[in-house]
From TrEMBL:
Signal peptide residue numbers: 1-18
Name of the protein: Active phase-associated protein II
InterPro entries registered for this protein in UniProt: 6-hairpin_glycosidase_sf (IPR008928), 6hp_glycosidase-like_sf (IPR012341), Endo-1-4-beta-glucanase_dom2 (IPR023309), Endoglucanase_F_dom3 (IPR027390), Glyco_hydro_48F (IPR000556)
Domain of life of the native organism: Eukaryota
Single GO molecular function: cellulase activity
Pfam families for the chain: Glyco_hydro_48
Gene for this chain: apap2
Length: 642
């Protein structure tokens, strides 16, 4: 047995392209993630948001999954391909993503009824859930969708090729919105398309009312869940999806690396089909570049005064926070709608993806103006980073074309220095918690800037990285293997004069890992010894201190979990039910509409807290963070052969 294992190991190592300490760590971590006993994957092979079920943050349950998770899965498998010279798992990861995260035609059946000269009907966003449902107002004119026709011509379908951001992998809510099915119910097996956030910038996950992506009025109230969010004259059975563009962009980025690595290994022919799908994903990802209602970008104040966009003048060319699409279930007189997003966060930008879609020959999108759009986007994203960089080095929030999500008048201090007429927002899109307080957005985004610099030597990226690296190095300290990196940030001022202050530090593994990878790419290109050394110490520190049987993780205090019993706003008189019979009616709480949480194996920890005990402590294994650890260790090994 021992001898057999040894033989197998030797055989594996013999095919490893870069066999060193750090690529070996990649493989160790990779095998922990793939070990069935760790519990990261569903029986269909879908990676969960986390191995643990009890977890509330952006997703409201650990065994949901997100487009983010799938993008990390694809990236990790791309690196496995580079190290083991086998890109089969990379192809498979893409197939899993496609099968479970991109709605099939039966799940988005009425796109051919879409009218690109009138993409959607305006409804003002509000600040808090209590101000919903929001009123649909067809007196506001909206712009036209300039990419629909060319996408139809390029791909021969009116359907969208993009990931919906959230699925209920174990069908715990019981909607049964599996591919091609609408509300097939609790007995349906497999990932079910759901959504949570719908009600304004102050709607934290704790205030959401999860709803099915396909609503046939079987569950919820008499109009399903629709009239919780939008007030209209009548309600039609319908489907709708929302993309999280940074995740789709990360999947394209991963495919770019797969392309590079497969070329180096003489394996390109094994992944060309996947690469053309990545290009297609990048083509549709352009919906993230447009104002929500395709209004003209710049000084757009007042929904009735803004100019409806024509051609590309509704494009900010950045990666917006989302785009969404939907339509009627009734296919007889089918109709459909699409929206972009006028708000962009620096943390979502991915200049490497833009670069790849322009320059990587195996990944050219087919849409007639796609390559030129991504070329403009690459330039615009770099300009955006430049505009948002603080004198200290960190990057501030972002900008919006629609103040408060309803084309309000912004405060006067924001109108002097705009970004192509868009207004600075230190916490774009969501405010609870503030969207740019978390340090993780920094390395997540700057990593892509560093990869762009590594790949292309881009001098604008280099200049910003010099400053960012100097800042982050000044905020990282070590004590033996222990490390301390920023946790939360505070912002003052308006671009081009924004300032940052670090308000707390942490030993969090996920963000330390992303920081290490960013520093490694920067060091590999610039030769900066200090950055390389800090990357190595972070990687060694987490590896030495935080091993678990499922990966590399450290414990955290879940100090927000008192909100399990906080009120969830339900309009007076509204009554509905979940498939399991949980009632949706005021007064509701996060827990009352998710009674299944009481059966969770870790529930007693939360229960003790709700009964007055201290905030519970957990050691989570988030898929993205665990894949990130593998990727940062592997990156270091591949870059420096150590
Ligand atoms: C702009 O002014 C408003 C008050 O009108 C203030 O609350 C806000 O913090 C200022 N914004 C910035 C970024 O300084």
């Amino acid at each position: 047995m021992g001898a057999l294992a040894l033989t197998l190991l030797v055989a594996l190592v013999a095919h490893t392209n870069a066999n060193n300490v750090y690529t070996t760590r990649f493989l160790t971590q990779y095998h922990k993630i793939h070990n069935a006993a760790s519990g990261y994957f569903s029986k269909e092979g879908v990676p969960y948001h986390a191995a643990e079920t009890l977890l509330v943050e952006a997703p409201d349950y650990g065994h949901e999954t997100t487009s983010e998770t799938l993008s990390y899965y694809i990236w990790m498998e791309a690196m496995y391909g580079a190290i083991m010279n086998d890109f089969g798992p990379f192809n498979k990861a893409w197939e899993v993503m496609e099968e479970f995260m991109i709605p099939v035609h039966g799940s988005q059946p009425t796109n051919s009824g879409y009218n690109p000269s009138r993409p959607a009907t305006y409804a003002a966003e509000h600040d808090t859930p209590n101000e919903y449902p929001s009123l649909v107002d067809s007196s506001v004119s909206v712009g036209q969708d300039p990419i629909y026709q060319e996408l139809v011509s390029a791909y021969g379908t009116s359907d969208i090729y993009a990931m919906h951001w959230l699925t209920d992998v174990d069908n715990i809510y019981g909607f049964g919105n599996t591919q091609g099915n609408c509300e097939a119910g609790p007995s349906a097996s497999g990932p079910s398309f759901i959504n949570t956030f719908q009600r304004g910038s102050q709607e934290s996950v704790w205030k959401t009312i999860p709803q099915p992506c396909c609503d046939s009025f079987k569950y919820g109230g008499q109009n399903g869940f629709l009239d919780l969010f939008t007030k209209d004259n009548s309600y039609a059975r319908q489907w709708k999806y929302t993309a999280a563009p940074d995740a789709d962009a990360r999947a394209v980025q991963a495919a770019f690396w797969a392309s590079k690595w497969a070329q180096q290994n003489g394996k390109l022919s094994t992944i060309t089909t996947t690469l053309s799908k990545a290009a297609k994903l990048g083509d549709y990802l352009r919906y993230a570049m447009f104002d929500k209602y395709f209004e003209k970008i710049g000084n757009c104040v007042g929904p009735w005064s803004c100019q409806a966009g024509w051609g590309k003048d509704s494009a900010h060319y950045l990666l917006g926070w989302y785009f969404a699409w939907g339509g009627s279930l009734d296919t007889q007189n089918g109709w459909a709608w699409r929206i972009g997003d006028g708000a962009a966060h620096f943390g979502y930008q991915n200049p490497l993806t833009a670069y790849a879609l322009v320059n990587e020959r195996n990944m050219q999108p087919k849409g007639a103006s796609a390559v030129s759009d991504w070329q403009i986007s690459l330039d615009r994203q770099l300009e955006f980073y430049e505009w948002l960089q603080t004198s200290e080095g960190a990057f501030a929030g972002g900008a919006t074309n629609s103040w408060n999500g309803r084309y309000d008048t912004p405060p006067s201090n924001l109108t002097a220095n705009t970004f192509h007429g868009m207004f600075y927002d230190w916490e774009p899109v969501y405010h609870d918690p503030p969207s740019n307080r978390w340090y993780g957005m920094q390395p997540w985004s700057v990593d892509r800037l560093a990869q762009l610099y590594y790949v292309s030597g881009n001098s604008r990226a280099k200049k910003m990285l010099d400053k960012w690296v100097k800042w982050v190095l000044s905020e990282i300290t070590f004590n033996g293997n222990k490390y301390s990196i920023p946790a939360t940030l505070e912002w003052t001022g308006v671009p081009p004069n924004v300032h940052v202050r670090v308000t707390a530090h942490t030993n969090d593994v996920g963000t330390a890992s992303a920081t290490a990878r960013t520093l490694a790419y920067y060091a590999a290109k610039s030769g900066d010894k200090n950055a390389k050394n800090v990357a190595k110490k972070l990687l060694d520190g987490m590896w030495a201190l935080y091993q678990t049987d499922k990966g590399v993780s450290n414990s955290e205090i879940a100090d927000t979990y008192g909100q399990f019993q906080h009120e969830v706003y339900v309009p007076n008189g509204w009554y509905g039910q979940y498939p399991n019979g949980d009632v949706i009616q005021a007064p509701a709480t996060f827990l009352s509409i998710r009674s299944w949480y009481k059966k969770d194996p870790q529930w007693s920890k939360v229960e003790q807290h709700l009964n007055g005990g201290p905030a519970p402590e957990f050691t989570f294994h988030r898929f993205w963070a665990q894949a990130d650890v593998a990727l940062s260790q592997g990156t270091y090994g591949m870059l420096f052969n150590e």
